[in-house]
Write a structure and sequence with these properties.
The protein is mainly alpha-helical and about 160 residues long. The protein folds into two domains: about 1-65; about 70-159, Muramoyl-pentapeptide Carboxypeptidase, domain 1, CATH 1.10.101. The protein contains six helices and no strands. The chain has helices at about 1-15, 25-65, 70-90, 100-110, 125-135, 150-155. It is rod-shaped, with a radius of gyration of 35 Å.
């Protein structure tokens, strides 16, 4: 690559002619110089691509050796999906708009002093009234729905 650059520069010097005579290189000579420059740039980019491919191969081997999607990582998501399904089946349809266990909602409402019923994971009328009361007290839209804003404030009562 360096040799090609030196050779290109030498050719450029020879082809440009003598500076004192003002002789200009021919169009063909100028084009050849430009082609040599482009070839040099392509060689550099080819080396960059080879380096990137090597890095990707190393990363791929690391990922294969240490898989991230283990059962322990998948289980919490399955529990959340199961909870959302149970909430829908138990009359909580439309109440939960965030992936949270209905029992956690009830526990947080109870800790905050808004819910007095049993923590059974069923978001019925008592849970919905507690949600609305919580929302009114916390200057949220009082729609009885656990969305992101409501849950952000409510989950603080779980800690």
């Amino acid at each position: 690559m360096v040799n090609r650059f030196v050779l290109t520069m030498a050719m450029a010097g020879l082809l440009t002619g003598c500076a004192t005579t003002g002789k200009q290189p021919s169009t063909v000579s100028q084009l050849q110089i430009r082609v040599d420059q482009i070839e040099s740039q392509l060689d550099e980019q080819g080396q960059d691509i080879a380096d990137i491919k090597s890095s990707i191969s190393g990363i791929a081997q690391h990922v294969v050796q240490a898989p991230y999607a283990t059962e322990a990582a998948v289980a919490p998501r399955a529990r959340v999906e199961e909870s959302l399904s149970k909430a829908t089946q138990s009359g909580g349809e439309g109440i939960l708009r965030v992936p949270v266990d209905p029992r956690e909602v009830q526990q947080a409402l109870k800790s905050a002093g808004y819910y007095t019923g049993e923590i059974d994971g069923k978001l019925g009328a008592g849970s919905q009234k507690a949600i609305k009361d919580f929302q009114v007290e916390h200057q949220l839209v009082s729609d009885g729905i656990i969305g992101q804003k409501t849950w952000t404030q409510l989950k603080a009562y779980l800690e």
